[in-house]
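Course assignment 3, question 2. Fill in each field.
Student: A.L.
Task: Predict the tertiary structure for the chain below.
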Amino acid sequence: MLILASASPRRRDLLSAAGFEFRVLPAHINEDPHADELPAIYVERLAREKAAAVFASLGSRKDVVVLGADTTVTIDDEILGKPNDAADAVRMLRQLSGRTHQVITGVAIVSANGTESFAETTLVTMRELSDAEISAYIATGEPMDKAGAYAIQGGAAIFITQSDGDYDNVVGLPVTRVVASLRGVGVLPTKN
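Answer field:
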């Protein structure tokens, strides 16, 4: 049985589109970064902690495989998580405007056989944004639950001039690597 340790509707959609049947059991852990923690290490740690917490809550059953993931945006060595409020979203979008940043997703797969984890990075370039564009985008509410305050698959698609790497990674789950890792632990798609 495959368990997704995330409440993200985007991850649910990506995993379902890849042909997997699964249950959703979100993990509730402290997501604060450690002092001087690098972004890739941070998201991979969170993915491992989420997957491990859900696996343990299910009694570490041999028939369970838990997939945990966490995505962040980083620029100038700063981790840009979900904005605290509209002003924070404005700050983030201004920081990303006209620049290239990294989107990093940490992934962990926990089963009775152990834990496998990795981090996937995609470079994303955003065109220069006007204050009016930023305000209009924030007014949609879309940025408020997204790392870096934007959704590449949503209204912010028109802001992106280039993406170098796995597009699905920017949405929230590097599907190609995840599918390979799940196959490695014996979890195969059941649909498609």
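Instructor remarks: The first helix runs from residue 9 to 17. The CA atoms of residues 59 and 83 lie 34 Å apart.
Grade: pending
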